[in-house]
Amino acid sequence: MLFEMGRPSGQGNEAEAILASADALGERLAALRAEIGRVIFGQAEVVDLALTGILSGGHVLLVGVPGLGKTRLVDTLGRTLGLDTKRVQFTPDLMPADILGSEILDEASETGRRAFRFLPGPVFCQLLMADEINRASPRTQSALLQAMQEGHVAVAGHDRALPRPFHVLATQNPIEQEGTYPLPEAQLDRFLLQIDLRYPAREDERAMLLATTGAAAAEADAVLTAEELMAAQSLVRHMPIGNAVVDAIVNLVRDGRPDGSGLAVVRDHIAWGPGPRAAQALMLATRARALLDGRLSPSLADIATLAPSVLRHRMALSFGARAEGVTLDAVIDAMVARIGA
């Protein structure tokens, strides 16, 4: 299989295998970005962050006002990555069984015997598009927790494994939008990255208008397969990472915790900070971003670029900080400055 990691006996052979696999994958990732770029306009950084999250094997939360193309982006990623994609439109009346599935009672027409049959919900796919996830009730939001973290769900007393790979790409409207519910912290922590979408630049918006309002709109084609994606995710975990980068990740995450931070801005304005899962997410994401850029190992610059997307949904401002107009991005910028990136 393409990019599959073997089991070489020596460290030299292992390094050569990683380098060869990274080179082969780099060409395919360049083609993947180009294919996505035919459909998604003016969101290159957003696309790279979303691909980083998927290559890291994690789930991604896309936050932005309606109409910025969040759903279109997820659909395009599913097509280009060759994944079985399903979509759930989250609404206030959506129930957990509408996502996970349920058992129904079947009766055989010939024998009259009755038996329960499991009817899988849309979560049984490789890429789940959870559209406007914060419009559902907390009870329904929590139905995704086990699936996102463990790769299986419990329905009617039976554990049922989800397909592999399995990713949730959720879209969310800003919380000040009417009719939304805040996501619980436990579920937010399951997302490897939170990506905030902004309005496109004027020229990008003009190009998007011309491309999407004609007789036929462009559709992306598959570039990778699900098997190749899993091999790429395995390669990410085999990539080398320097001690300086590891130390920077540990220091950055620990600086975000108010009880032991060396930064006054954190101690004064943060109610609670990131846990160890944030460090794991940042470690994987920096490797994936380096691979996406054609580099064999991550750098401090990768940490600086990814820190907001990894940390902003894992930290909370205190009441006083919100009253003073302090922003999480400003606090994270101060934390990043400490690592010297």
From TrEMBL:
Keywords on record: ATP-binding, Nucleotide-binding
CDD domains: AAA
InterPro entries named among the record's database cross-references: AAA+_ATPase, ATPase_AAA-3, CbbQ/NirQ/NorQ/GpvN, ChlI/MoxR_AAA_lid, P-loop_NTPase
Any one GO MF annotation of this record: ATP binding
One Pfam entry name: AAA_3
Domain AAA+ ATPase positions: 56-201
Family as reported in the entry's similarity comment: Belongs to the MoxR family.
Protein name, UniProt field: MoxR family ATPase
